[in-house]
Amino acid sequence: MTTLPPATLQQLELQAIELPSWAFGNSGTRFKVFTTPGTPRDPYEKIADAAQVNLFTGLAPSVALHIPWDKVDSYDELRTHAEGLGVTLGTINSNTFQDDDYKFGALTHEDAGIRRKAIDHHLECIDIMDSTGSRDLKIWLADGSNYPGQADLRGRQERLHESLQEIYARLGENQRLALEYKFFEPAFYHTDVPDWGTSYVQVVALGKKAMVCLDTGHHAPGTNIEFIVMQLLRLGKLGSFDFNSRFYADDDLIVGAADPFQLFRIIFEVIRGGGFNNPDVAFMLDQCHNVEKKIPGQVRSVLNVQEMTARSLLVDHDALRTAQLSGDVLAANAVLMDAFYSDVRPALAEWRESRGLAADPMAAFAASGYQEKIEADRIGGLQAGWGA
Length: 388
Ligand code: LRH
Ligand code: MN
Known about the structure:
Layout: H1 6-13, E1 19-20, H2 43-57, E2 62-66, H3 75-84, E3 88-93, H4 112-132, E4 136-140, E5 144-145, H5 153-170, E6 176-180, E7 190-191, H6 196-204, E8 210-215, H7 225-234, E9 238-243, H8 260-272, E10 282-285, H9 294-313, H10 317-325, H11 329-340, H12 345-354, H13 361-368, H14 370-377
Parallel strand pairs: 1-2, 2-3, 3-4, 4-6, 6-8, 8-9, 9-10
Antiparallel strand pairs: 5-7
Helix pairs in contact: 2-9, 2-13, 4-5, 7-8, 8-9, 10-11
Bound molecules: 6-deoxy-beta-L-fructofuranose and manganese (II) ion (MN).
């Protein structure tokens, strides 16, 4: 059995993965959004479900909110509710992708009135951060176009910069913004923040409180994502991850499900670049459980990240450097593959038990009866989802 050295366990003990509130609501595709018995009806129930993931894994101490999906009368009350369940409120996600006014863009729009509305939404999000105690404002923009000639690409970049400057100026001392890029969808010809380079040049122009957010589902097929991770860490501008996995496009599937080796390679570069357990680099999930049960889906997700982290921490860096420096290609590759093929699951299960957690959190949650209870209790009311 692979054993995990004490130093590795100490590092794993500090690992924290933020959960997306929207993963607990209904989600789907343009074809169908399926409802599920027990789905939360409001942010309070979403946070209660997220707290279950932390209860069984000890890995998920905070929950990201999405505005207006998680709008409430009192964020102080929501914060107290969360802290009462042993979690905190994390990243605040803005939303300028579901309003008719933003059909031709939001922060990049030609019309100053529309940009004003979009900027004000972000200023409202920062007001919310003041109540929730959140550090990060995450900005993902659907802004783009569908046909060549439809939009003035250069003008939009200038307007994006001006809009972001006003949002940046409102950030408090300990607050940050993270600009998330995505190479396409919903726009199908150009996207105004399509890649890490565009996000980087826009955030560098703002200042030290502006960072890049890397969503693992937002790259063209075949992209070497771990290379981008290395570069953004090298530049000191990797602010956060949206972890998920995909077979084709922005599938938002369980992280590590589609390509566990890619997750291993990404986390290896995070560790190599000083981004692991580094407060500057937030680990968040951004997923949708369209057909599988949502709480077990999130439990599985954080365990996948933990397992690939444990394997990445097993890489023998001295042997790797020796092989790299001697140009022994196969030996160098073998060092990484040995770590990747190390089955750390029995050692992690044993370690969890030593910390008073269940050896198998998936089985423990299933046996807890929580799922049956919410399915029985949450009758009536509008199930939460991307619309509501
Ligand atoms: C866009 C995105 C973004 C969120 C949304 C839920 O595809 O990744 O991070 O706002 O999903
Ligand atoms: Mn995302």
